[in-house]
């Protein structure tokens, strides 16, 4: 899945062509896995010199050719399907078995608009007792996600990062984000990041390399160091992480930055 930065760049070209296009059109997208088929339809109103609006969203889900779900997704009024913003992103609407139970879920991604924010997913899983699909929401902020089967066991993980670090210590452009890995189980998103220490270690290493590359160039490194330390907390190596930060960060706001960082990490669930 593309990041918001990439989406915005890609969207510039899409928008440029859309202004001269027809004023209104109906879009229908269909995806399927096994006996589960999902159809998304909506109207796109294109007016000169205005951002194209999406309305009359409808999602239909069929099981073995029988319609089980047929209603508007639980999106906000001005949000748009991510696939409408970036038509090349085919993974933003799909049917896929997320937890290996042979019961495919439907995933539909939305974009709220704006330069940096936000994306979220609506996930529909079939409740056999209720004999209907139940909607869940996963919020990604600026960053999006990628689907990967990390264990090769048919259970799919959502590879992402912690968007709460955006603007926490510096500008968005200078912010960095600790790794997050999620799994969809029993209708809920479960944070399973700590069960993948090798991936955390690799991510922390890349953050430290990024710091090494920009240090000494008048770059604001507070965002990178904050994300790096959060990864170290996930590994249970916070003492080593703090030792490194105290060695390398000697700016005039050093003590204030460290105090704010410690408080932020605690409030964000990383530790002491």
Automatic annotation (TrEMBL):
Residues 1-20 form the signal peptide. It comes from the Bacteria. Keywords: Signal. This is WD-40 repeat-containing protein. It comes from Leptolyngbya boryana CZ1.
């Amino acid at each position: 899945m593309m990041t918001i930065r990439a989406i915005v760049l890609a969207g510039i070209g899409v928008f440029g062509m859309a202004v001269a296009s027809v004023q209104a059109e109906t879009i229908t997208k269909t995806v399927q896995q096994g006996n589960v088929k999902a159809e998304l339809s909506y109207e796109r109103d294109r007016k000169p010199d205005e951002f194209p609006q999406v309305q009359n969203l409808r999602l239909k889900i069929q099981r073995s050719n029988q319609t089980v779900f047929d209603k508007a997704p639980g999106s906000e009024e001005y949000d748009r399907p991510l696939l409408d913003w970036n038509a090349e992103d085919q993974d933003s609407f799909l049917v896929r078995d997320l937890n290996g139970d042979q019961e495919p879920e439907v995933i539909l991604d939305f974009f709220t608009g704006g330069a940096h924010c936000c994306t979220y997913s609506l996930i529909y899983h079939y409740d056999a007792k209720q004999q209907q699909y139940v909607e869940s929401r996963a919020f990604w902020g600026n960053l999006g996600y990628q689907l990967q089967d990390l264990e090769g066991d048919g259970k799919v993980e959502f590879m992402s990062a912690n968007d709460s670090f955006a603007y926490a210590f510096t500008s968005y452009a200078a912010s960095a984000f600790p790794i997050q890995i999620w799994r969809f189980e029993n209708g809920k998103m479960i944070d399973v990041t700590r069960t993948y220490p090798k991936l955390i270690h690799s991510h922390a290493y890349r953050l430290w390399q990024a710091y090494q590359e920009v240090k000494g160039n008048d770059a604001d490194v507070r965002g990178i160091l904050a994300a790096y330390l959060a990864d170290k907390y996930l590994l249970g190596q916070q003492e080593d992480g703090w030792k490194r930060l105290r060695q390398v960060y000697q700016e005039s706001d050093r003590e204030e930055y460290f105090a704010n960082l410690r408080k932020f990490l605690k409030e964000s669930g990383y530790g002491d």
